[in-house]
Each structure stands twice: as structure tokens, then as C-alpha cells.
Automatic annotation (TrEMBL):
Matches recorded under NCBIfam families: hemH
Catalytic activity line of the entry: heme b + 2 H(+) = protoporphyrin IX + Fe(2+)
Protein name per Swiss-Prot or TrEMBL: Ferrochelatase
Species whose genome carries this gene: Citrus clementina
Lineage: Eukaryota, Viridiplantae, Streptophyta, Embryophyta, Tracheophyta
Record-annotated membrane-spanning stretches: none
Top-level EC class as recorded in UniProt: lyase
Keyword Chloroplast: yes
HAMAP family in alphabetical order: Ferrochelatase
């Protein structure tokens, strides 16, 4: 599918990365809400500055599976109707006048090997990825520079092995086009926008396009089934910062779908893919179903209240229940992959579990990437190459891997249903400006922070002990 032909998808105009840095800085790098008040039970996550978002979040969460069971729920402006498997949008007078936008949020990935280091810089400069204590926040950028430079060679090898860049942009554009088509088939004409967190097209660009198009109602759909502070949380924080600064955007009714791993359509689509791949083994009933999720540092879950692990475990439970309903009773395991840096990450680790399973005599294994809905470096390189090799060396003889959902029709249809269900609960996201944000707008304070931060980073960079420590952890 040609992304350029997709009218709702954002244009590919390139913003220089240096502008992005400036942009982020202007909008403030302070943590705002990933609110604690939703039914996801997220507590104590940074500072909460938006009651409005908390409300929106709670409402849009209700517009998920709860409402499926009770279609007469809270939706006000439009009605979602439920057939066997279908939801259609019946527009009311107000909704018919609305110009509806759907903003797909995703991580982004380097398009070329040349992009790898600046992409990594953007990632590590995110205070939701490297969570420094408040006192040390001024080190965020120098540290990001250091880590991105040290890690870039290893990352480049990975991207080189999968064709010289990330497929994320292309796949996300295709998903956007497919979602637009699915919503139109359900009587809801929409513009679909793609906003990436760390690479083009950046979320900031997508939002500018939404403004230019004079969208009057927006559904925000992060392409992560489970919520994590480091993914959906980080993307929502960026959005809030942009929306707060702008008169039009701060009044725009928005509904954010924070997590959707529990949706019937998603669970069914995953079960379908697993069932299909199991069928390719000679003895399907003997295959170990091996879920591999992207990890997060343990502190996110245990100190910051990230619901990621709980949601992941519930997601696996739901998928396994669905398989059992179909008479599939295989053993299964969940492990976490892709750890980075010198901190403890969620366990068990994928590489260690693969070795243990091989040693225990497991002969057939089906790997299932579960935290992301597109193929990307961690499926195509880490799982398909590194983990496969490790598994075969460890005694596993028959290896299979479930493909990512990408544009699987039943999955896209379910995303369309999620959008329709969320639409009526859209509320303005506006929130008062956080006073502590003023710091970031003060050029003198900013210059002082950067000056001392750069000196410290320079010292760290040329300290042999520091270089060794990073090499050991990052390579
Ligand atoms: C739900 C998915 C993801 C979570 C949670 C997540 C957390 C997280 N990631 C890093 C560090 C890196 N991630 C990188 C790539 C990457 N991460 C995800 C998803 C999640 N990350 C995806 C889909 C991708 C691939 C993008 C692509 O180009 O295909 C990378 C860069 C690649 C590499 O060098 O390995 C890093 C680094 C941290 C630190 C973190 C939680 C704190
Ligand atoms: Fe990641």
C-alpha cells in the first residue's frame, strides 16, 4: 500500500532534529500526568497536572470492554451499535458536523543507518525512558548524547541486519490507511494521522496537521496494547505539553485510549495467528507457546506504579483462555526481552528462559512478540536471529515465530471499533500550566544547566572507567 496515497496520513516533510530538541525544550520537559485515577490503578507516576486528562482517561477506558458488555453505557453524542462482531457509527446531528481525527501514536524508528544515533539521542533524552532524580535532570541531554553515541554502533548492526532501517514508519502508515478505510466502511469518515515519539513523522508535526485540518473531535490511539510509562505515558505527556500551550488544541474534545490489550478483537486476532502458526508444527500439541514482551526497568513497576507487567500478564491470560476455548491446551511461558543499561529489568529474561527450556528438553517452541503490533527491529533481528540461534544451540529443534499483527483485517476492524466506542467520551484536554515549567522557559537557567551538564558529560565521556561501564552494559 502506498502511504503517500493516504489522504489522512501525515505528510513526510522533514523537521531538522535540532528543531525538535528546541521544540521539546520550549514545550517543557517536565513530567505531567499519566494520571493515577484511571481504572488501571497507576499511582504516583510523576506529577499529575491535568485533572481534565484524568477524566478523559477514565471515560475512554470505560468505553472499552466494559461498555462492550453494556452498550447503553456512557456514550452521549454518538451510538455504537453491536451486531455479532460489528460496531457501526450512527452519527447524531452534532457528530455529523464534527470533523473527526484519529491520531495513531507510535515509537518511530530510524529510516536509515545515518538516523540511528540521532534517533537514539531522542529516545534517551526522554525523561520517561531515563528517569533521573529531579536534581539531576539537567544531565538528561548530555547523558543522552553519551549513551546514544556509545550504543549507536551496536544498534546500527541490528538495523543493518534488517535491511538498513526500521520498517515502523511504512507499517504504521499502512495501518493508518487501513484504519481509515475500516472506519469509512462503518460510516465514520475520518482523517488518520501518525505521530511518532522519537523519529519522523514526529507527534508535533502530526498535531500541526490536525490544527491545519481544523479537526473538531480527536481520538488518540497509541499503538501499544498495554500501557507503560515509557511508551503510551511518554507519548501522552508530549501531547499534553503541546495541547496546553495552544488555544485551539486545549479546547479540542479528545479521547485517549490508553490500553486495549483486553479487547475481544485483539485477543481473537492474536489467538488466530497463534493457532495458524501452531498448525505448521508436526506435533502442535507439544509446542511451548513462548510470549516475549519488551521489558521495562523493574523500578517502573515497583516504584513508579507502571501497570505494564500486570497488563501484560492479564493479556497473556486472556489469549491463553481464548486458545483453551478452542481446545488448545499447550504449555506457555512469558519472558521479557530487550533490556538496556545497568539497572534491573523485568524478569524472567527471554534469553535465559530459552536456554533453560532447551536444557529441560523442550523441543518445539513458538515465539510470540506481544508488546507491539508491527514488525520492528526486536522481532526481525532480536527474535528471528539472536533468540532463534540461541534456542537452537540450547537444544530446541523446531522453532516458529508468530508474525506481528501489522494490518491483519480482524485487528484493524477492532481498532476501528475502539475508535467508535471512544469518540463520544471526548473532552477538552486543557489544563493549567504547571508553574515549575517556567524554569524551562527561562533562558538563563537553561544556559546554566546546559553549561554545567556539558562539562560533566565531557568529563564522564573521557573517563576510562565510565566508558568501560557503559560498554559492558550497552553492547
Ligand atoms: C511496548 C514496547 C516498548 C517498551 C515498553 C519499550 C521500553 C523501552 N525501550 C528502551 C530502549 C530502546 N528501545 C528501542 C527500540 C524499540 N523499543 C520498542 C518498544 C518498546 N520500548 C520498539 C518497537 C523499538 C524498535 C523501533 C524500531 O526501530 O524498529 C531502542 C533502539 C533499538 C536498540 O538499540 O535496541 C532502544 C535503545 C528503554 C530504555 C525502555 C524502557 C525504559
Ligand atoms: Fe524499546
Amino acid at each position: 500500500m502506498d502511504a503517500a496515497s493516504c489522504s489522512g496520513v501525515l505528510s513526510r516533510a522533514k523537521l531538522p532534529v535540532s528543531n525538535l530538541h528546541k521544540f521539546n525544550q520550549t514545550l517543557g520537559s517536565y513530567i505531567v500526568s499519566v494520571s493515577c485515577q484511571s481504572s488501571e490503578g497507576l499511582n504516583n507516576v510523576n506529577r499529575v497536572s491535568s485533572q481534565a486528562l484524568a477524566y478523559t482517561v477514565r471515560e475512554s477506558y470505560l468505553c472499552g470492554p466494559v461498555q462492550r458488555r453494556n452498550p447503553a453505557g456512557i456514550c452521549a453524542a454518538g451510538v455504537a451499535t453491536y451486531g455479532e462482531n460489528a460496531v457501526e457509527y450512527e452519527s447524531h446531528a452534532q457528530a455529523a458536523e464534527d470533523k473527526v481525527g484519529v491520531l495513531l501514536l507510535n515509537l518511530g524508528g530510524p529510516d536509515t543507518l545515518h538516523d540511528v544515533q540521532p534517533f537514539l539521542f531522542n529516545l534517551f533524552a526522554d525523561p520517561d525512558i531515563i528517569r533521573l532524580p529531579r536534581l539531576f535532570r539537567f544531565l538528561q541531554w548530555p547523558l543522552a548524547k553519551l549513551i546514544s553515541v556509545v550504543r549507536a554502533p551496536k544498534s546500527k548492526e541490528g538495523y543493518a541486519a534488517i535491511g538498513g532501517g526500521s520498517p515502523l514508519r511504512k507499517i504504521t502508515d499502512e495501518q493508518a490507511q487501513a484504519l481509515k478505510t475500516a472506519l469509512e466502511a462503518k460510516n465514520l469518515p475520518v482523517n488518520v494521522y501518525v505521530g511518532m515519539r522519537y523519529w519522523y513523522p514526529f507527534t508535533e508535526e502530526a498535531v500541526q496537521q490536525i490544527k491545519r485540518d481544523r479537526i473538531t473531535r480527536l481520538v488518540v490511539l497509541p499503538l501499544y496494547p498495554q500501557f507503560s510509562i515509557s511508551t503510551t505515558g511518554s507519548s501522552i505527556r508530549v501531547l499534553q505539553n503541546i495541547f496546553r500551550e495552544d488555544a485551539y488544541l486545549s479546547r479540542l474534545p479528545v479521547s485517549i485510549i490508553r490500553s486495549w490489550y483486553q479487547r475481544e478483537g485483539y485477543i481473537n486476532s492474536m489467538a488466530d495467528l497463534i493457532q495458524k502458526e501452531l498448525g505448521k508444527f508436526q506435533k502442535p500439541e507439544e509446542v511451548m507457546i513462548f510470549f516475549s514482551a519488551h521489558g521495562v526497568p523493574v523500578s517502573y513497576v515497583e516504584k513508579a506504579g507502571d501497570p505494564y507487567r500486570d497488563q501484560m500478564e492479564e493479556c497473556i491470560y486472556l489469549i491463553m483462555q481464548r486458545l483453551k476455548d478452542r481446545g488448545i491446551n499447550n504449555d506457555h511461558t512469558l519472558a521479557y526481552q530487550s533490556r538496556v543499561g545497568p539497572v534491573k529489568w523485568l524478569k524472567p529474561y527471554t534469553d535465559e528462559v530459552l536456554v533453560e527450556l532447551g536444557q529441560k528438553g523442550v523441543k518445539s517452541l513458538l515465539a510470540i512478540p506481544v508488546s507491539f503490533v508491527s514488525e520492528h527491529i526486536e522481532t526481525l533481528e532480536e527474535i528471528d536471529m539472536e533468540y532463534k540461534e540461541l534456542a537452537l544451540e540450547s537444544g530446541i529443534e523446531n522453532w516458529g515465530r508468530v508474525p506481528a499483527l501489522n494490518c491483519t483485517p480482524s485487528f484493524i476492524t477492532d481498532l476501528a471499533d475502539a475508535v467508535i466506542e471512544a469518540l463520544p467520551s471526548a473532552l477538552a484536554m486543557s489544563a493549567p500550566k504547571n508553574i515549575s515549567q517556567e524554569d524551562d522557559h527561562n533562558p538563563v537557567r537553561y544556559a546554566i544547566k546546559m553549561f554545567f551538564g556539558s562539562i560533566l558529560a565531557f568529563v564522564l565521556f573521557f573517563s576510562p572507567r565510565m566508558i568501560n561501564a557503559f560498554r559492558n552494559q550497552l553492547f
